[in-house]
């Protein structure tokens, strides 16, 4: 497979890290596709990436390029790791946002050192596991009324802060202050509500996790930026959270996928994959989906906020001091499954577009008008979650991302192996023991789920991050290594 | 064989092929495959019964609606299942489905080892039903 991909794309090489698939590749392509990858990653990419990316390039109103980031792999409809922008006279597509609307990453720092935490890691992981519900049907500790839920959809993290789930300044460390505008709860179905009412502050399962991490020796790549973001010493303990809008968002996407599929004939749109069903943004269906998606996005920000509250409670319980004294500030929180209305250069001019990021992270440059405070000085933090065995990265956005990728970069390490295959090769119970020997204490709701997430099923995270760093799209700030992990 | 999981497609998620001699059998087996992703069906107890009725313009849309309903009930009723008893009626080019699902509430602490992986949604990527030599075969890619 490696040789096949390289041979095919070598002749369309744009740079060492960018490969182009011309419009002539598939009938109906409106724009070329571009893949960000090192030669090694390009060789490893599965054929689904190229097939799905060129399908996306055929969609109406797509601008410049259909883009795949260095972590791209075969998803449904569009690859996981893709960035697609449509003009406002183009379409919006739930399938290129993903079912898990505003699945994203949050990074929280502490002033604790690894040597304070290692001796208590088992206790800490057990307390986190008790306080943060995980897995299929992990039930929220909070029962929401429908009117509370409606307010949460409109106000996002500020609602949580007012209810006491977090600090009053938390929203200042979150993309869009934890609230995307345009949310309209009347566009959300009763079924979505029913799925969401019992799930606030729950982690979910699959690749979702909560990880206790440390800054490894030699891990800081940019001391100045790291310091500005509160990462000051090797051995510093941080907590990374990966989750999204849970059943609520999944139902919003399911509902609108059916609405869009039925309306495509009316709008005269054809797509190469039913999962790419879309509608003009300027149509009732398109506007309604955007309003409902914003509700789910705000629900996801709130979900990570309530989880943060539960994490702070857990640290207080274990370290017998306040979360304020532990300086448990949010470094940043960023979405990686989302549709955003943003201004970008589209080849000839700068205009408003609907950027679809599916398994891709916003990567805005320093000084961008949508950033504030320290983020405006150093660039927007990009939180890249690796597999639970290999570690993660914190990066920042760049001007080049604005010029080339609609201000976007990778989101994680990206799978190279299916879940079914990983489960055959790895047994969850053994993996848990092996990881403990290597200094990573993991507690999972399900051994099968654990095996599916084994490190061997993923690309090399450093190769993925270095590719985007060397391409100038997002710059490394620090590496992070796991010492404890809970997953669904 | 009732169903089998596929290893080399849609690697981010789960893909399965499901078989049935009749529409009823195809639907029941597809439900079993989804139950199997979510929990250890051998250990799930048949304590709760839920009845579902759905309709659609064709068989594919009906199967999609049915499997999506199972995913919905997993969250809304906090239930995992082990058995589906399906009835399908075709009338004036409309398909009607009546199903009884049997399973149990999702354990929160004790007995949690029966649960496996959350299914977020049923995708329409590669979603299809084919009839070959008088037998039905479907391909389903659930989002994990």
Question: What keyword list fits this structure?
Answer:
heterodimer; A: alpha+beta; seven-stranded mixed sheet; B: 144 residues; alpha+beta; three-stranded antiparallel sheet; 24% helix
Quick description:
Chain A is an alpha+beta fold. Chain A has helices at residues 2-10, 39-44, 47-56, 114-117, 121-131, 146-155, 157-162, 190-196, 223-228, 246-267, 284-319, 373-378, 399-404, 419-425, 428-437, 447-452, 461-470; strands spanning 13-15, 18-21, 33-36, 66-73, 80-87, 91-92, 104-113, 209-214, 236-243, 279-280, 330-335, 337-345, 350-358, 361-362, 381-384, 392-397, 408-409, 441-444, 474-487. The model of chain A has no long low-confidence stretch (mean pLDDT 95).
Based on DSSP secondary structure assignment, what is the total number of beta strands of chain A?
19
How confident overall, as mean pLDDT of chain A?
95
Order of helices and strands of chain B: EEHEHEEEEEE
Number of helices of chain A: 17
The largest contact between protein chains, plus residue counts on each side, is: A-B, 55 and 40 residues
Proportion of residues in β-strands of chain A: 15-25%
Q: Which structural class do the helices and strands of chain B define?
A: alpha+beta
From the N-terminal CA to the C-terminal CA of chain B, the straight-line distance is 24 Å
Largest sheet of chain B: 4 strands, antiparallel
Helix content range of the residues of chain B, please? 10-25%
The poorly predicted ranges of chain A are: none
Number of helices of chain B: 2
Q: Classify the oligomer.
A: heterodimer
Structural class of chain A: alpha+beta
Kindly provide the radius of gyration of chain B, computed on alpha-carbon positions and rounded to a whole number of angstroms. 15 Å
């Amino acid at each position: 497979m490696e040789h096949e991909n390289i041979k095919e794309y070598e002749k369309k090489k744009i740079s060492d890290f960018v490969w182009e698939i011309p419009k002539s590749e598939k009938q109906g392509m409106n724009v070329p596709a571009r893949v960000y990858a090192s030669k090694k990653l390009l060789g490893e990419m599965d054929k689904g990436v190229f097939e799905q990316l060129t399908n996306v390039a055929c969609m109406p109103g797509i601008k410049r390029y259909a883009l795949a980031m260095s972590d791209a792999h075969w998803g449904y409809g569009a690859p996981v790791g893709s960035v697609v922008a449509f003009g406002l006279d183009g379409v919006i597509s739930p399938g290129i946002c993903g079912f898990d609307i505003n699945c994203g990453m949050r990074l929280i720092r502490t002033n604790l050192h690894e040597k304070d935490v290692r001796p208590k890691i088992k206790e800490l992981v057990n307390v986190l596991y008790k306080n943060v519900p995980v897995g299929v049907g992990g039930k929220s500790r909070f029962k929401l009324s429908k009117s509370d839920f409606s307010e949460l959809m409109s106000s996002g993290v500020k609602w949580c802060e007012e209810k006491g789930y977090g600090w009053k300044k938390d929203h200042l460390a979150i993309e869009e202050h934890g609230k995307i505008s345009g949310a309209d709860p009347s566009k959300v179905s009763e079924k979505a509500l029913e799925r969401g009412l019992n799930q606030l502050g729950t982690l979910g399962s699959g690749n979702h996790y909560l990880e206790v991490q440390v800054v490894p020796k030699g891990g800081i790549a940019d001391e100045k930026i790291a310091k500005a973001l509160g990462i000051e010493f090797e051995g510093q303990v941080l907590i990374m959270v990966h989750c999204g809008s849970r059943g609520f968002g999944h139902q919003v996407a399911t509902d609108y996928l059916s609405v869009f599929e039925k309306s495509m004939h009316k709008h005269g749109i054809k797509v190469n994959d039913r999962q790419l069903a879309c509608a003009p943004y300027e149509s009732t269906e398109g506007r309604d989906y955007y309003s409902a998606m914003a509700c789910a996005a705000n629900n996801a920000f709130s979900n990570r906020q309530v989880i943060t509250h539960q994490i702070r409670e857990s640290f207080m319980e274990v370290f017998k001091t306040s979360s304020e004294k532990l300086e448990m500030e949010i470094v940043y929180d960023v979405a990686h499954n989302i549709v955003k209305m943003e201004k970008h250069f589209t080849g000839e001019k700068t205009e408003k577009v609907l950027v679809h990021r599916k398994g891709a992270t916003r990567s805005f440059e320093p000084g961008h008008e949508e950033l504030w405070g320290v983020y405006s000085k150093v660039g927007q933090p990009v939180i890249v979650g690796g597999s639970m065995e290999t570690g993660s990265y914190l990066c920042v956005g760049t001007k080049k991302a604005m010029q080339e990728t609609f201000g976007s970069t990778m989101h994680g390490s990206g799978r190279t192996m299916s879940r079914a295959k990983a489960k055959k090769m790895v047994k969850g119970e053994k993996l848990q023991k092996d990881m403990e020997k290597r200094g990573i204490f993991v507690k999972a709701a399900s051994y099968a789920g654990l095996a599916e997430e084994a490190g061997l099923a993923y690309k090399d995270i450093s190769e993925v991050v270095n590719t985007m760093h060397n391409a100038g799209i997002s710059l490394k700030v620090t590496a992070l290594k796991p010492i404890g992990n809970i997953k669904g | 064989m009732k169903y089998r999981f596929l290893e080399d497609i849609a690697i981010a998620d789960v893909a399965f092929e499901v078989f049935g001699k009749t529409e009823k059998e195809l639907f029941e087996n597809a439900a079993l495959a989804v139950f199997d992703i979510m929990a250890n069906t051998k250990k799930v107890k048949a304590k709760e019964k839920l009845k579902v009725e759905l309709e659609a313009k064709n068989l594919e849309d009906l199967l999609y609606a049915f499997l999506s309903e199972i995913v919905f009930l997993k969250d809304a009723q906090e239930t995992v299942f082990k058995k589906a008893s399906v009835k399908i009626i075709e009338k004036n080019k409309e398909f009607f489905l009546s199903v009884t699902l049997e399973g149990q509430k999702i354990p929160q602490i004790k007995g949690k080892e029966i649960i496996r992986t959350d299914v977020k949604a049923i995708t329409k990527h590669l979603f299809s039903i084919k009839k070959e030599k008088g037998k039905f075969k479907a391909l389903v890619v659930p989002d994990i």
